[in-house]
Amino acid sequence: MKNLDIDRQYLRATLLELLKIPSPTGMTDVVVQMVCHKLEAMDIEYELTRRGAIRANLPGKVHSPDRGIAAHLDTLGAMVKNLKSNGRLEVVSVGTWPARSAEGARVTLFADHGKHYRGSLLPLKASGHVFGKQVDTQESTWQNLELRLDEPVENLADLERLGVHPGDMLAVDPQPEFLDNGFWVSRFLDDKAGVAALLAAAKAVTDAGCPLPMDCHLLFTISEETGAGASHILHGDVAELLAVDNGTSAPGQNTSEYGVTIAMQDSSGPFDWYLTRRLISLCENYGIEHKRDVFRFYRSDSAAAVEAGNDIRTGLICFALDASHGYERTHEKSVTAVAQLLALYMQSGLLFERDEHALGPLEDFPEDPSDWDDSEFCAIDSTGPSD
Ligand SMILES: [Zn+2]
Asked: Does the N terminus or the C terminus of the chain have fewer Cβ atoms within 10 A?
């Protein structure tokens, strides 16, 4: 197993490219195309589901069982709910995100026949010159927001003439700003930073020609923000699924701002004991800055996979994210650390031989998780399965 260098230039450029493509849940085809081209550039084979979830394959010595690493391509967005008599548009959110952070956002409305319109999401009482103090006391809710299109529209008839309809999708501008000191600020770093980290890890492994002990599927999902996650894209022989998503930096959280965060539990319950310890051992042995954290209001691709009835070991690793689902910020070091850990995890062997089969006898079933020590396996210069 080798601690591989991550191509930071590739990571940064890929993330910026991903951010440039609007991909609210339900409108992910363009970003799917882009990621498929990235995979082709690395000679990585992939399959596509009907709706565009991607299952790529890094082949290993053993084809079954295999493992999956999932990141989601879809982002939050919004949708036109109704056309209003004042020429503005009522909107609803796609995915769960605060109206407060939608106020002032610039958006593109996608109407029929390829027509695009630009506009801003604004509070109903937007101007202090008209509403005085009410601009500060108005509750921040999606009902109190409206979309102002930058078109000459003053009434319902004007909107209808433009060809705007209830159900038109809205994509919010990401406004990326990547500073030289490593802070990366943008909307939708969730989960595009995760996608970029996964691609950068795959690039590190393929560039180095590292042999992998078992097949590793790179899963790019398209409906995480609305809950379906990686439920629909697994082969029957996936034994482990690791999701890559955001770890929220906030008071009371233990997220690593410049390293990788290993999630111990989210709303769906504790992550797999052994997989979690494997990830921690890899960080400890290869000097990757990391912390453990527990999330309260959180679910990821892996929760959806388990809820869909898959008996698989699941884990979640995170890049740091401040103000998640708002105007987000991460750090280059954190996203790089995630990519580094992913590249090591891809090279690590199966946790238990018995995981090859969905059902098995008691003899080889682990006896006591609290006794289990994976550190020897993950040690540097290990003669593990990859050597
Ligand atoms: Zn996410």
From this structure: C
Same domain, 151 and 271: no
71 in the same domain as 93: no
* d(CA 72, ligand 1 centre) in Å: 7
Task: List, as ranges, residues with CB under 5 A of the ion ligand 1.
Answer: 190-191, 245
8 A C-beta contact, residue 239 and residue 67: yes
Chain centroid offset of residue 194 CA: 5
Residue tagged active-site, from 90, 177, 224, 284: 224
Question: For this structure, is 224 an active site residue?
Answer: yes
| Residue showing tokens 């407060």 | 100
323-372 per-position pLDDT tens digit: 999 999 999 999 999 999 999 999 999 888 888 888 888 988 888 888 88
Which residue in the block uniquely carries the two structure tokens 């009410």? 134
Of 146, 172, 198, the last residue of a domain is 172
Residue 90, domain extent: 77-172
Same domain, 59 and 89: no
Bridging pattern class, strands 328-331 and 183-186 = antiparallel
Tell how far the Cα of 245 is from the centroid of ligand 1, in angstroms: 5
Which residue type is seen at 183?
F
How do residues 249-277 score in pLDDT, each as one tens digit? 888 898 889 999 999 998 888 999 999 99
